[in-house]
Amino acid sequence: MMLSGIKASAMADSAKGACLLNAITGEIVFEKNGNTQMPMASTTKIMTLLVALEKSETDDIVTIPHEAVLEEGSSAYLEEGARYSMLDLCYGLMLNSGNDAAVAIAYHISGSKEAFAEEMNSMAKIIGVKNTSFKNPNGLDEEGHYTTPRDLAKITQYALNNEQFAKVVSTRSHTATYTKADGTQATIEYINHNRLLGEVEGCIGVKTGYTKADGRCLVSAAERDGMRYIAVTLNDPDDWAEHKEMLETGFSGCRMIKAIKKNDIIRHVTSDGKEVCRLVSASDFDIPTNGNRGNKFDIKVNLPDETYMPLNEGEKIGELEIYSGEEFIGRVDVVADRTVSDAGELKTKRCFWFFLLTILRNLFR
Questions:
Q1: Is pLDDT of 3 > 70?
Q2: 342: helix, coil or strand?
Q3: Please, what's the b/e burial string for 166-187 (b: 16 or more CB within 10 A of its CB; e: otherwise)?
Q4: Hey, CA dihedral for 16, 124, 73, 193, is it positive or negative?
Q5: pLDDT at residue 292 in the model
Q6: Distance CA 171, CA 191 (A)
Q7: Alpha-carbon distance 139 to 245, whole Å?
Q8: Using CA atoms, how far apart are residues 282 and 104, in angstroms rounded to an integer?
Q9: Percentages (nearest 5) of helix, strand, coil residues in the chain
Q10: Which residue has the higher pLDDT, 280 or 364?
Q11: What is the spatial distance between Cα 214 and Cα 143, in angstroms, rounded to a whole number?
Q12: How would DSSP label each residue in 286-334?
């Protein structure tokens, strides 16, 4: 068990594996068997949804194959030969945890469950997780189908950056309209099974899962005031309560550190050896951290080699990219602090004080 910067406790005591991730910085706040490979049940569908959204259009029309309606387990109640939009299938996949929807999506995109699983594994490589292997799109028990709590948290962190993904998993209910095989129209309502959407402040999803062999699996996420946490438990009979505790521990142990202040001087602009303008940060940027000092942050300055007149006050000249370790966190515009319309050749000079400020803010926070 590992905790970063918070008092050790019996969090996720019932779980076989668990992870709490600061989704802004990528910091692992807490984990239990975080790198141990284990089955994930229907939390598999987090990757299924991500691949579906990356590899198809939400308005694609999907004809439901025979193979989908034969799939065992939880169902979106699809009808063979009926036509659904990909978006409606995505809601059936996540809200109803439809194994049939997972198969329909797989056949539409890849032609088979096996081929779609390869797409899932390719996406895992893009995300950078190395201890996860997908064999099917729905999480039914199969040899070689596994993840780790840490990998599943990282997959979810990546997926939540997709706006459509975030919208689907946070939706409480959705009414799908489809065309039956005989051409008539019908509707079906899907209800989200994630209790935490109504029980945890700021909860934004993500996915439940269960098989007899895998036990109860759950991935949840919540955000408040610029902070976002992802909690994962695998094989946990008390997952609802333990997720509440994990998420609250993340928020209560978080503090904000100042990476950039508005009007920090990034460059001096000179003409004939005299300063005529400054390039400054357009806004503050705070980083939420749970560590005693938090992850070291770095700032990459993206500015053109040359600056030309006229310069207008508030005009964007470039930007700052903020990283926590290798994790990209966000960006801040760099703007001119005054108007310059009449001057000689403009040159930019680095601001040593900004470089020093970054070092000091990393040290004293």
A1: no
A2: coil
A3: bebbbbeebebebbeeeeeeee
A4: positive
A5: 54
A6: 9
A7: 26
A8: 47
A9: 30, 35, 40
A10: 280
A11: 12
A12: EEEE-SSS---EEEEEE--S---S-B-TT-EEEEEEEEETTEEEEEEEE
Catalytic residue positions?
42, 45, 97
Residue identified by tokens 């990998």 is 151
Q: How do residues 34-88 score in pLDDT, each as one tens digit?
A: 999 999 999 999 999 999 999 999 999 999 999 999 999 999 999 999 999 999 9
Rounded to the nearest angstrom, the gap between the alpha carbon of residue 191 and the centroid of all alpha carbons in its chain is 22
pTM for the complete prediction? 0.89
The 10s digit of each residue's pLDDT in 209-230 is 999 999 999 999 999 999 999 9
Name which of 324, 252, 263, 342 is nearest 290 in CA terms. 252
Place of tokens 């946990």: 236
Q: What is the CA radius of gyration of the chain?
A: 24
Residue 171 has phi, psi (to 5 degrees) of -80, 130
Reading phi first (left if > 0) and then psi (alpha if -120 to 50, else beta), residue 81 is in: left
Separation of alpha carbons 288 and 227, rounded Å: 6
The CA-based angle 74-78-84, given to 5 degrees, is 130
Q: What is the mean pLDDT of the chain?
A: 92
